[in-house]
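hey can u check if this looks right to u? its 118 residues, i copy pasted from the old doc so theres a chance i mangled smth
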Amino acid sequence: MTGYEAKGKGILYYKCNKVGCKVNKNAEQLRKAYNSLLNDFAIDERLIAPLKQKLVATIESLNEQKAEDAKRLKVTLKVVHNKLAPKKPWFWIRSWHLICESWKRSCAASSHLVNLLA
């Protein structure tokens, strides 16, 4: 919908933009209809305080669950870390051994190539 002001009258209207639609509506009528629709969603004043209490209780409960989840995850992380910690030296020794072996082969290949070219 597109809003526009009627020439000379100063009245606001909304016009439908779809092809074949020739509906024009007074903006004041649409505003009243929209306010009426919003009033259907209004909360009774007597229910606001109990609703607030329920929302606060729900949020606190969710926060407690998140705190428990965080504690559980920290314990799990410690367990996994402790399981992996003893493996670290072996991993580094094995990796270093593989690097050295690769370097030795590379050096041996280079020496062999130098000997062939000499």
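The chain has a mean pLDDT of 79.
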